[in-house]
Amino acid sequence: MLSLTLLLLLLVPAPALGRKITVTNRCPSTVWPALLTPSDIGSPIPSHPAGWELPSGDSTSFDVAPNWTAGRIWARTGCVNQGGQLRCLTGQCEPKSAGSLECSGGGEAPATLAEFTLAPNGQDNYDISLVDGFNVPMIILPTAPDCPKPDCPVNINAKCPGVLRTGLDQNGANLGCVSSCIRGFGQEKFGNRACCSGGYNDPALCAICGVDFYNVFKVHCPNAYAYAYDEKSGSALFTCPSSSSSDYEIVFCPGGSDYIGPKSASVEYDNDRAACANKVNSGPQQFAVGPSPTQGASIGDIKYTAGAGGGGPAPSAGKSVPPGGTSSAAEDNHNAEAAGRWRRETHGDYDTARRQAATFGDGRCDRAAAAGSGGGSECGEEGLRKAGKARVTQGLRG
């Protein structure tokens, strides 16, 4: 009887064990990591806080479920306490509550993202995404010895052309580099070829004639997503057998690299443009993509102004349109506000919401609607919501 009981116990599958995630800061200064698990796709929510302070040289470890889905981790930089609220120059998120370090949703662009979809049976999927842009170098280190270790070890802020600089800087030095999608390149009549939206939401069509400023990101970080369907490169999405029960470490600034770029914009990639267009189109009109004038501002002892040739600070950092300023500054402000609103409301695919809002959220909504590619008075609110949820359900893509 005892032998039969033991046999039955052996036949019962053992419960799947959780995985350990370690976040390490090798940057020369403190960062504020953030953790996001979409709440509407059935993924277990980790018990660890969704945001915390991590001094240089420190690490934090926590457990996630073996089926953790669409999870992401990023670093917030240049953060200060302003009026009881944490305000960050990059990676800013909506706090869970007043004075909290935790995020209630996704972060503002630009931010380097570590993305995970784990599986108790099958294979883990993980990647580093620069789809929204770059703010800190990163590497993902599985504990399983035979699994790939994607990295983005180079400080792309030092390589960033003027048109992609954020205007978020510390004492005049650049802190972020947005993607061409976020900056507004690639808009055509029936979709955006840089954002892979609308008619270009297809791996075979998106980037069919290239992506503006693709090499800014892909040359220096070949093992990261440079646009939404960059898995076509064969070096963007990575897998590890779930049978290895691998844990993962995310290291910011591996090797002690820095994330602060110079005061002057790089000119190395000024001509790294897609083959099919030098201008973007929206309906029957054409308009050149250019920088947006902005005024300087400050948070505590951190100063940020317009980077050379770049756009202005994110609205979360208190951006305002200067008296007599051009409409492009106001449009950029509306872009980021719309993107933030949709990230909070979709609780799903924050990348898609951000790209869609950046494309249609700047006063071009009516032209977008006329072109049949979404828009309307609220820039296609229901469409954004559905697009966000659909993409997360399908799994990670950049």
From TrEMBL:
SMART domains in alphabetical order: THN
Secretion signal, residue range per the UniProt entry: 1-18
InterPro entries associated with the record: Osmotin/thaumatin-like_sf (IPR037176), Thaumatin (IPR001938)
Record-linked SUPFAM superfamilies: Osmotin, thaumatin-like protein
Residue ranges with Basic and acidic residues bias: 331-354
Gene3D superfamilies, A to Z: Thaumatin
Compositional bias segments (type: Low complexity): 314-325
Domain of life: Eukaryota
Region feature (Disordered): 285-398
Keyword entries, A-Z: Signal
Protein's name according to its UniProt entry: Thaumatin family-domain-containing protein
Species per Swiss-Prot/TrEMBL record: Dioszegia hungarica
